[in-house]
Amino acid sequence: MGQAVSALVIKMQGGSGLDQGHLVWQPGDLHRFRQGGLNIVLDVNSGSIHLVDEIAWEFLGALEKEAGNMELASRALGKDYSPAEISHVVAELLQLKSEGTLFSQDDLAAHSLPAASETQVIKALCLHVAHDCNLRCRYCFAGTGPFGHDRSLMSFETGRAAIDLLLQASGQRPTCEIDFFGGEPLLNFTVVRRLVAYGKKEAARLGKTIRFTLTTNGLLLNNETNEFLNQEGMQVVLSLDGRPEVHDRHRPFPGGQGSYKPALAKIRDFVALRPGGNYYIRGTFSAHNPDFSRDVLHLAGLGFNRISVEPVVAGPKEDYALDRVEPAVLEKEYEVLAEVCLERKRQGHPINFFHFNLELLKAPCLPRRLAGCGAGNEYLAVTPAGSLYPCHQFVGQEKFLLGDVGRGVTNISLRNHFQELNVYTRRDCRSCWARFYCGGGCHANNFSHGGGLEEIYLLGCRLQKKRLECAIYLQAQELAGEPVI
Amino acid sequence: MSGKIVHIKTIVKPDLKTTLATGGCGSCQTSCQSACKTSCTVGNQVCEKK
Q: Least CB-CB distance to A46: which of B16, B22, B40?
């Protein structure tokens, strides 16, 4: 049987000298996983996804054990499968290899990627229009609003300077983004309103478009805000953690009472104006609700079908930090959630769970995927005083101060540092199968948990990879019976 | 090999590598992974050109 395989290999390869008898791949160039009865294989460098049967699955496993030696792998399967079956599997694997959809290599790893460019392009700003808040969320990374400094609101003049900087620094980019953030941005609604009007006018004058998003706890929504947000076509992110007891534990008013009921009422009224449309309910899960799929179901039960529930950002000493939970428990919970989403879809009541949305057809290009979020480079946060930071997570950390809206980025070496971060400059990302989907993780988490911008946040990586597996699995379920795309 | 069982079914074949030459226009949305606003990976993003 070993000879039959060798002969087949030589025939398929035309007798060439290429690694005859071996099918090898680098760790991180191929990812196999099983979920919901499917055997899924991701060819990382081409982005191709395959479903394999049991014999092919076992053969790939045997190849891994036998360092790619096809003869030894075939022998290992010999007790359970016939020579003919094994030969067919080998033939299919070699065919896919020759097509470049399996065992493809990472051509980028050996290249040096571009060094930091002298030209600064900024395409997105997170405007902290309020360093104040009407809640006192216990897990707030902003120190309940002011990021460790004074409670303050951004003036229109500062916001206008930020928009001017963005439009001027965006170069040829036709579309820019502005997120209104905080604190609670609706505490400064008057300025938000003026800045949207100004931004739209200025962008149009320059032939550009600005996409606006507003993140809010919802409590200050009213007819006026709702009409404005809808009229301006703004994306809105609404904070609601899930079950009442889960939400109220971490999201109290300054007096200590929970905010679930009033927040839900306001959010419901707003979402009713946007059926099927442009909103996300945004919840946070922590060590206090590792069964967060129940919170997703709770939100869906309230009638919301666009949901994102995400892990809390926390120092390891906090009682709500996810470091206190076994990672496998959280991974399992994502799998449970994936089955929930599958079932709901089958029933005709789908849940759009944000982290399970994986774009396979209109996916971003490789250059985009390498650099991740762009924080500290193309994406900056602006404080009420007009200071620039790499993103909202770095605000208030003086060593990460990048500049100000008047002068732009002045800390060029720090900006260059962020610009040069990508999945190849991070040692742990280089050989990770998820690198082209993840983009290197969150810079802030990598710094605070991993100890440096070039490090990684291990738990963050595990959860990211599990979410990606679930997203791929859900797409595989949908595509299993379809022609290849 | 006709009439044989197919052991491997390819369901997506995007050919990511070619985008190294064709991509990089920068038009797509900024992504953020961090847990404070709706965050997403580049994998969740959509190419604006396509």
A: B16
- Give the model confidence (pLDDT) of A84-116 as tens digits: 999 999 999 999 999 999 999 988 766 555 555
Bridge partners of A388?
Answer: A382, A403
Whether cis (ω within 30° of 0) applies to the bond prior to A183 is yes
| Cα separation values, A174 from A155, A232, A387, B27, B49, Å | 27, 19, 25, 7, 12
Q: Which residue of A has its CA nearest to B50?
A: A362
Q: A415-472, pLDDT tens digit by residue?
A: 999 998 988 889 999 999 999 988 888 898 899 999 999 999 999 999 999 999 999 9
Buried b (16+ CB within 10 A) or exposed e, A133-144: bbbbbbbbbbeb
pLDDT in tens, A103-153: 999 887 665 555 555 567 999 999 999 999 999 999 987 676 777 777 899
Q: Are strands A279-285 and A306-311 parallel, antiparallel or unpaired?
A: parallel
Which of chain A's residues have a Cβ under 8 Å away from the Cβ of B47?
Answer: 359, 362-365, 368
CA pseudo-torsion sign A409, A412, A415, A416: positive
Å between A433 CA and nearest CA of chain B: 13
B13, B32, B44 member nearest A48 (Cβ): B13
Interface check A393 vs B, CB under 8 A: yes
| Three-class DSSP category at B47 | coil
Upper half-sphere CA count for residue B19 (Cβ side, 13 Å): 24
User: Residue B7 in contact with residue A481, Cβ under 8 Å?
Assistant: no
In chain A, positions 59-78, which contact chain B (CB-CB < 8 Å)? none
Dmax (CA) for chain A in angstroms is: 78
- Output the pTM of the full model: 0.91
Within 8 A of B34 by CB-CB distance, chain A residues are 313, 391-393, 442, 444-445
User: Per mean pLDDT, which range of A253-257, A281-285, B23-27 is the poorest?
Assistant: B23-27
pLDDT band at B44 (very low <50, low <70, confident <90, very high): low
Is B3 near chain A, with CB under 8 Å? no
Cβ(A225)–Cβ(A189) below 8 Å: yes
pLDDT in tens, A165-220: 999 999 988 999 999 999 999 999 999 999 999 999 999 999 999 999 999 999 99
CA A10 to chain centre: 43
